[in-house]
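WARN no homologs supplied; continuing
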Amino acid sequence: MKKLFVLLALVLFAPIFFMPFYTDANVFVYMGRLLVSGYVPYVDGWDHKGVSLYLINAIGYGIGLKSIIGIKIIEMLLILYTFMRVFNFLKKEYSLLIAVIAGSFGLFTLKYFFDGGNMTEEYGALFSLLSLLLLLKKQVRTIDYALIGAFFVLNFTLRANLIAFWVALFCVYLVQLILKKESFKDVLMKFVKMGYGAVTIVLILGIYLLSTNSLHEFIDAAFTFNFSYSGTGKSSAISTILASVKKYHLGVIFIAGFIVAILRFLKDKNRKLELFLIFWIPIELYFGNISDRLYAHYYMMWVPLVIFSTAIIISEVRERIQMSNLLVVIVAGVVFVGSFYVPTYMTLKNWEWILLKSGNQSENVATHISDNYKDDTLLVWGNSSEIYNQTNKFSPTVFFYHSTFKYDTEFIRKKIEEFNQQVVEKKPALILDTKRNGMIHLDGANASEIDEGQKRNLKEFLRIIKADYVLKEQKFGFDFYVLKENE
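OK structure emitted
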């Protein structure tokens, strides 16, 4: 059965080896390439995710001998290792049947929100899962607590809102102190042991950021921008939570798990997992919806909630009602059909794309640039970082993608001013307009569809394009602009 579980994971996620990354993932690859090439994130290339994400991509890019295949190998191994740990834990603590059902639900939840892979929340969900499994061991060693602390810093420096597990952990220890299940000294020592790992990662990241003079830029991007980007009040967060559960209705599984966890904990206050879920589920719901955007990948952090909610629901039902294995499988099958038809369809479409060898527009564009603009510096207007990655080029400007320019805030206006100055100083030989939706096109053709704030903020940039560049050709639906002085 374990081999079949591994096979299921491979069927769901092996397509990453044959398919290109999506938009955001390519940004992270670009930042990893910067690191491997000796450049500095936030200084030589600007993005607003945490430095740990770029280090993961840099390590993978290095392992792959300067190829994204290394990143995909790290992803696949991390998914397989984490879910095998989950499977073994569930089998030991509950039963083989629960391990198969809950583990499979977890895999399909990850696939549901996968968005092509290499996403911030993917690593965050897997690190949270590993942390919980370490905490639920019969004998938790010092090294286990240190790893939990290390994972906390890694998640926090992936993205600051990916720490719901550790907030829940604090709440669990607080309740155990109140219920006198733990002594203050024991709890304090556990946090001290977690501190070993946390401090180690902080020192490693701190030394790197300080030695590259990028600490301020890291804080500016990963925290200042992200909190301004979120900007959601409590009432808005609650409405977004309701909208997320309505849109992604597999959330019903852990809503039911939350209720069951309360009932099981009230019946037996020694149940640690149930106490954890009582805090983790609402905290994760809030943190995951701290922005009012319902992007699918935000909800990969639901994966642990679905897995362990499924496990305790089946366990509770079987304790209350003598259900046969066959009936459990039938009910689980009905829930599966209602909750996971989307990732099932996505998987079939992935393999269809691979087997039919569907075309990849960005690869065609990259080949054209390599053949005709090999020695030219390249700026891709919009957000198509895969073109940089496929041509092995770096933008001469720090701002290599521009979707954040859509936001009319003081922070972004300052960044646009810096970008304009860099374009004037660096003079990219080729500017490629990818015609991204929501971004003003360089010929202004879609100006009527763009809000006034964006048009006002980018007015100077469009003036620079008109004054210094000329449209040379239009291919693959993109516009190729070159410097007038080079014509």
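Strands lie at 378-381, 430-433, 469-475, 478-483.
OK
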